[in-house]
Amino acid sequence: MKTTITRTALATLILLLSFTISSYAQTYYDVYICGNRSVKLHTPEESTLVNGDKVHWFDENDNPIGLPIAYSGPNTTDLVIPAALGVGLHQYKTRIESLGGCLGDPSELYTIYKLPTKTLALTENRAAYCAEESNSIKDATITATTTPLSPLPAGFEYAYTWSVTKNGTPYAPLSDIGTSDNSVTDVNKFTMTVKTAGTYVFSATVKYVKTVANTGVFVQEDNDGCSVSQTATQTITVTPKPVKPTISVIY
After folding, report:
1. How many independent structural domains does the chain possess?
2. Global confidence as pTM
3. What burial class does residue 236 get, using C-beta atoms within 10 Å of its C-beta: 0-12 exposed, 13-18 middle, 19+ buried?
4. Nearest residue to 36 via CA among 80, 83, 86, 82
5. Predicted pLDDT at 200
6. Residue 39's beta-bridge partner residues?
7. End of a domain among 63, 96, 114?
């Protein structure tokens, strides 16, 4: 009886562990693209073909994509994936047909995920503060919020770049006036702690970044993660502390 209970408990534990592990498993795709970028799908087995052989391309539902492509030399049977591809997951497979009409087995599915476009908005919690008031309670915080057209797939995060002008002149280093929380989510915050008076105008950009765990290939437009800028800048005015007065008599 004791042995039966122990075995049952062990089986239950294994089942729970399996469920926990599978819950954390992520699905990654072969290729990710963003922006106006097209790609070509190629079958390496094309190198074994002769003139008159054909390559068939299909979607995940076995629907033909165009007509079979007759081989006539290197890279002549590639499938062009247009830049106008819709956002989301797309899957493809291919088969080879010999000159004699024999049709080979289909390939495994190949996956392409088109990332959505996004916008970036900046907001602030204080448009102005007195220079000598700068502290953890009264600091100005500029928040950058990224809104993608649709949810991102697993294996992608955001990278933000902040820039500032002071009284119309680009300012650096930014560490002299505050710090970013370095968030890679859809919200990133820059906390301003500078005590030097002036007018500070904040700008930002955000781009897609593939995580280290993601095993797919990221094909980017302009190789910049499809970076976008904020819709409108935010201005924070730091006003100087009034001078300490003295008293005199008028007579």
Report:
1. 2
2. 0.82
3. buried
4. 83
5. 97
6. 81
7. 114
Residue range 130-148, pLDDT digits in tens: 887 665 556 799 999 999 9
Q: Is residue 7 part of a domain?
A: no
In a 10 Å sphere around its CB, with 0-12 CB exposed, 13-18 middle and 19+ buried, how is residue 178 labelled?
buried
In a domain, 17, yes or no: no
Q: What is the CATH number of the domain that holds 91?
A: 2.60.40.10
CA pseudo-torsion sign 98, 103, 109, 114: positive
Token pair belonging to 86: 């819709």
Which residues in the chain land under pLDDT 70?
A: 1-25, 133-138
Q: What pLDDT score does 134 carry? A: 61
Instruction: Mark whether 105 and 145 lie in a shared domain.
Output: no
Range of the domain at 58: 31-114
The answer to whether residue 2 sits within a structural domain is no
